[in-house]
């Protein structure tokens, strides 16, 4: 536990290395509600696949 606390305290001491940088994404998707069974369906589900590939 003390090693984790030590690492967290030192986070701001050095600039982040470019190899460790990851983009932060926020996606707003259009969802349709199915009134029969009260479920939801994405209008464009392939957008999630695209965002998942960017994450890797």
Can you give a write-up of this model?
- The chain has 56 residues and is an alpha+beta fold.
- The protein has a domain at 24-56.
- The protein has two helices and two strands.
- It has helices at 2-9, 46-55, and strands at 31-34, 39-42.
- A two-stranded antiparallel sheet has the order 1-2.
- The model has no long low-confidence stretch (mean pLDDT 83).
By secondary-structure content and strand pairing, the structural class works out as: alpha+beta
- What sequence of helices (H) and strands (E) makes up the elements? HEEH
Number of helices: 2
Low-confidence stretches: none
Number of strands: 2
Strand order of the largest sheet: 1-2
- The percent of residues in helical segments reads 25-40%
The N- and C-terminal alpha carbons lie at a distance of 29 Å
Largest sheet: 2 strands, antiparallel
Whole-number mean pLDDT: 83
Strand content: 5-15%
- Tertiary shape: elongated
Rounded Rg: 19 Å
What is the compact description of this entry?
By secondary structure, the chain is of the alpha+beta class. It has a domain at 24-56. The chain has two helices and two strands.
Produce the secondary structure layout.
Blueprint: H1 2-9, E1 31-34, E2 39-42, H2 46-55
Antiparallel strand pairs: 1-2
Index terms:
single chain, 56 residues, alpha+beta, two-stranded antiparallel sheet, 2 helices, 14% strand
């Amino acid at each position: 536990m003390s090693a984790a606390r030590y690492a967290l305290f030192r986070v701001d001491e050095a600039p982040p290395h470019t190899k460790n940088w990851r983009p932060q994404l926020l996606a707003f998707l259009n969802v349709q509600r199915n009134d029969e069974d009260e479920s939801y369906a994405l209008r464009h589900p392939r957008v999630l696949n695209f965002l998942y590939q960017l994450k890797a």
